[in-house]
Amino acid sequence: MATAQETTPGSQDLFTFQSVVQQQEGIFGPLVSLSISGSGTNNVMTFQVGVSPDADHRVTLQSYDIHPPQLAGTRLVCIATCLVAGKAQNVAAYRNVD
Predict the structure, then answer these.
(1) In the chain, where are the structural domains located?
(2) CA angle (2, 21, 42) in 5-degree steps
(3) Contacts of 72 (CB under 8 A, 6+ apart)
(4) Cross-sheet strand order for the sheet of 87-96
(5) Which of 38, 59, 60, 94 could serve as a FRET partner for 76 with CA atoms 20 to 30 Å apart?
(6) In this structure, what is the dihedral angle of CA atoms 61, 35, 10, 3, given to the nearest 10 degrees?
(7) What is the per-residue pLDDT across 31-65, written as a single tens digit (0 to 9) for each?
(8) Other C-beta atoms within 10 Å of 63: how many?
(9) Which helix (H) or strand (E) holds 83?
């Protein structure tokens, strides 16, 4: 499975971060994982190179405290500690299911 990694600034709010992830899914393929870069200033997005999900099935991001919530009609893609507006937050990525 070929993967591609891209970075995005950790200074972004969650909505902007989500928009970047969705745009990159449209280029590379489905999101696999999220993480904070070694420098501690960016978020790293890892994608499985392949067929991109359509717009209705691109991931949505949600921050959470202790456990990622279950969201009806979605499946959990990944969880990670990411930078949101410059601060570490727990983030869950969900994909709509049919």
Answers:
(1) 3-96
(2) 90
(3) none
(4) 60-64, 87-96, 74-84
(5) 38
(6) -90
(7) 999 999 999 999 999 999 999 989 889 999 999 99
(8) 13
(9) strand 74-84
